[in-house]
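Worked example

This section walks through a single chain of length 124. The input is the sequence exactly as stored; nothing has been trimmed or padded.
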Amino acid sequence: MNIFKLFYRITVSLMDKLQVYRRRTDKYLSHFKHYVGDAGVIVDVGCGEGVFSRALACHGRLVIALDLEIRLLREIENSHVEKVCADAHHLPFHDGSVDCVLSLSRFSSILKIRGSVWKSFTEC
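Given that input, the structure is written out below as tokens.
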């Protein structure tokens, strides 16, 4: 194991013990729920393990959890979450098919956004 992976694992473990991630997640969710309102279809780009996807999924709402890592997507178990393994640079959705796009960690790396997908980013 290289030194960077070891440092990362130690840091994540410490943050878990201090409940830093939990407090941050709760704070973000309170904001997200306000903005997504009654959106019927939400895409969580770069969802990872789907923490936000699962929390926002409910009856009558479809959350699409999108990530490149199939092993992370496999950990998401929720009947209102559809898992899509895809690249955020080439979102596999038709214009107008998504009500809201959530991208907590990936927004800065998306270089090309077109059509209603961009509109979704600006309206959420």
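What to look for: The chain has one domain: 35-123.
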